[in-house]
Write a structure and sequence with these properties.
The complex is a heterodimer of chains A (about 260) and B (about 100). Chain A contains 10 helices and 8 strands. Helix content of chain B is about 20%, strand content about 30%. Chain B has a 6-stranded mixed β-sheet, with helices on one face. Chain B has one domain: Ubiquitin-like (UB roll), CATH 3.10.20. Classes of the chains: A alpha/beta (about 260), B alpha/beta (about 100).
Chain lengths: ~260, ~100
């Protein structure tokens, strides 16, 4: 192909390619399962689209409400009025950011989606807002041998946890009785979701931006084959004090996710 | 000076069972509380006691020693906690 002056500025990913280890071609081929299309989901989707990921499945059963609008890039008041489905709005937004993106919206709870969905993707990104769904995604990702990158936030505090099967700890290894108590409050005796305990957690965009950026950067490392650069366990961020650190979650031999495999 | 928060103290048993005095820090406020414990006490118990002491909101918390998260069900002995150790209670953020 003949060299054209200025062609370098026509390449959408020219600046990305200047990161020596970043493999944009692998990112474009990778199949990403993104579970949750709320605040984190919006930012993660934006980062995925701009980073060159194309094949993204977005799972979320919820619809847009007005209180989402302080931190969700793709949501508008019109979406809230129409009660549009979050997964579909995020998928549409990704297409606007990148014509190459091929997002698929799945408007269901992840628990109601066939477990084969984990086998059908290369990496799983969790943008969830509750412990029960996290446990579901964690165990199925691990069983399918897929790296699971989970994000969580509360106000100015955020965390990114990575589970890397077949060895290494998972999210459940780092949970304790306080997690079980919170998870149990989400269910009634009939096993259905209840409304009496739906905590309205503090949430704002700056923490969301930090956590989503770390999540997608880790995903880029996975698809670029740079697993040696991956977070070993968990990245903890405290935006109030502007400190962050990596903390270790030791593997729990009694964790059901691991004992099931042995 | 605030009296140490006491999970294990019993004047008679203290002679028999070794009481371990540790400090637990509140990552959100920087506050700290001393606790007197036995080797049989669990990390879960410390989390619950500290969260109650600081009137924490209902939520998930983890306790860490240095860079390592401590397993909830393990006892102090199993977790290798020694007298004068400083542990930190940190929230485990649930929102997305």
């Amino acid at each position: 192909m003949p060299l054209k002056p200025g062609a370098i500025d026509d390449d959408r990913y020219d600046r990305s390619r200047r990161v020596s280890w970043l493999d944009i071609e692998s990112a474009s081929r990778a199949r990403v399962l993104m579970v949750g299309a709320g605040a984190l989901g919006n930012e993660v989707a934006k980062n995925l689209a701009l980073s060159g990921f194309r094949k993204i499945t977005i799972v979320d059963m919820d619809h847009v409400v007005g209180s989402n609008l302080n931190r969700c890039l793709f949501f508008t008041e019109e979406h809230a009025i129409k009660r549009a489905y979050k997964s579909q709005v995020v998928a549409d937004g990704m297409k606007r950011l990148s014509r190459e993106a091929e997002p698929v919206a799945v408007t269901r709870r992840i628990e109601d989606v066939s477990p084969s969905v984990f086998d059908d993707h290369d990496i799983v990104l969790g943008c969830l807002d509750n412990i029960a769904a996290r446990l579901h995604v964690n165990s199925h990702s691990y069983a399918a041998g897929r790296v699971y990158v989970d994000g969580g936030m509360d106000g100015l505090v955020g965390k990114v946890t990575i589970a890397r099967p077949p060895s290494g700890s998972c999210l459940q290894c780092g949970m304790n009785r306080s997690h079980a108590k919170v998870a149990s409050l989400r269910f009634s005796c009939t096993g259905k979701d209840v409304v009496f305990h739906e905590p309205r957690l503090a949430a704002e965009i700056t923490t969301t931006s930090v956590i989503s950026a770390v999540m997608v950067r880790e995903a880029l490392k996975v698809v670029s084959g740079k697993t040696d650069l991956l977070l070993s366990n968990a990245f903890y961020y405290d935006g109030q004090r502007n400190v962050s650190e990596v903390i270790e979650i030791p593997l729990d031999p009694s964790c059901p996710v691991h004992s099931r495999r042995s | 000076m605030r009296k140490p928060f006491n999970l294990a103290f019993c004047p008679v048993l203290a002679v028999v069972f070794l009481v371990i005095r540790i400090k637990v820090k509140n990552a959100e406020t920087g506050a700290a509380v001393e606790m007197e414990l036995e080797g049989e006490n669990t990390i879960d118990e410390i989390i619950e006691s500290a969260a109650t002491f600081w009137s924490k909101d209902m939520g998930a918390y983890v306790l860490r020693k240095g860079k390592k998260v401590l397993r909830g069900g393990s006892s102090l002995s199993d977790a290798g906690i020694r007298a004068e150790d400083v542990l930190e209670l940190i929230p485990d953020p649930e929102g997305g």
